[in-house]
Design goal:
With 59 residues, the protein is of the alpha+beta class. The chain is 24% helix and 27% strand.
Length: 59
């Protein structure tokens, strides 16, 4: 099984997404969005931009 994005509506009525690892662990979660389309645009942005993201270790 591959990692997957889940889009859902939270208790406040906002749309959010989370990225789950193959083992079901949540590895990323989003802010709240007013519309489902905005949440889906957030997923698309992560998919497009995360592949080239660098790690900024500030420890």
């Amino acid at each position: 099984m591959a990692a997957k994005f889940e889009v859902y509506k939270d208790a406040r009525g906002e749309y959010r997404f989370r990225l789950k690892a193959p083992n079901g662990q949540i590895i990323a979660s989003s802010e709240g969005y007013k519309s489902k389309d905005s949440a889906l645009n957030g997923v698309a942005s992560v998919k497009k931009n995360a592949a080239d993201a660098i790690v900024d270790d500030q420890s």
